Fold each of these.
Amino acid sequence: AQSVTQLDSQVPVFEEAPVELRCNYSSSVSVYLFWYVQYPNQGLQLLLKYLSGSTLVKGINGFEAEFNKSQTSFHLRKPSVHISDTAEYFCAVSDSRSGGYNKLIFGAGTRLAVHP
Amino acid sequence: SAVISQKPSRDICQRGTSLTIQCQVDSQVTMMFWYRQQPGQSLTLIATANQGSEATYESGFVIDKFPISRPNLTFSTLTVSNMSPEDSSIYLCSVDAGRGAYEQYFGPGTRLTVT
């Protein structure tokens, strides 16, 4: 079964600094990867996804992620964060062999705290 | 993308009672999903609901505790039965984005506190 590991439970960072949130997944023949953001008291919003093609994926709000098959990683980056980026970030994987529908498996989440 | 609403947004319930959570989508979708997010934790899939068939439950979740209905392509309910404080969580529904997309769209969640 697929699994997702988010290596950092919390990441504190100052405003306008760069940030990287790390995500590793268990190996599979075919895998689709996602990053979701959850703002306080809200549901999950899709930031970006990797299905195939270019390994560098750009998403909303200036975020990007790089798919690295050899390292089974899908790290999320932003060159300059804002206070409004403070939220919980979830990495997720969809196993394309999961029987006809897209079952998502989530990592434990990383709390990004942006300080002024 | 689909717009998903959930009712209620939050509730405080007594131990031993049941709560039914509603999930409404603004378009017809094949698959709907119910997740539990315990305090400070990640999302755990409870079950998958396909219109016209019985829900498929994940390991550790049973129909008697979490009965699900899926009467049409835009609506589903999840009932949390015989609640205990351990059921205090956020319950989220989501929908499959459709063929070729693979992601899911999420509702705002229902925050349940059991006392």
Note: The interface with chain A takes residues 4, 30-31, 33, 41-45, 48, 50, 92, 94, 96-97, 102-109, 111 of chain B (CB under 8 Å).
Amino acid sequence: NAGVTQTPKFQVLKTGQSMTLQCAQDMNHEYMSWYRQDPGMGLRLIHYSVGAGITDQGEVPNGYNVSRSTTEDFPLRLLSAAPSQTSVYFCASSYSSGLAGESTDTQYFGPGTRLTVL
Amino acid sequence: SQKIEQNSEALNIQEGKTATLTCNYTNYSPAYLQWYRQDPGRGPVFLLLIRENEKEKRKERLKVTFDTTLKQSLFHITASQPADSATYLCALDLLGGGYNKLIFGAGTRLAVHP
């Protein structure tokens, strides 16, 4: 398994440009999320999905759109990039086996996309 | 207001000693609490999960405690090694069930010196 993959690794945008950050997982996980990480702050949840066709907002959704047409893919779209969106973006996926005594709810994170908006 | 706090200063310890990291939170009632390791330029890696009805959980050299009255979790690494040097993140899972709605602390950087 490749786990959670993200592309691109690095991206530089100009203010006002749009782009899509790609995220894919090959573990058949139902749950997927996008977080951003800024210096000195914890990861903050942007959007999450509990299955194909179902998405919801997290803590900092403004300026971002998501869709989940398949179990495997969860792209994050920046509609009109702003300097405040300069950050490192992480995609994560998870499942819950529900088995007693098991370590369920493990989240698997991708390697991240480092985005700079000029 | 709701807050989750970890020691902002780096923790420096000698190899072989026990490292203890603290996670405090206010105005949350998490179902689970999770700990992650993050190395520079990499994504977080899941280490341990503890549920609200569990007091302690162990995995190899790692131990986590969870006190819902004090609203605090302690993360211990025994017999620490230089390879344990990293940033450690705690995260509150408000829903449980793997729904990925986590609230993260800013992390504590641990440096283990030979």
Note: Chain A has a mean pLDDT of 90.
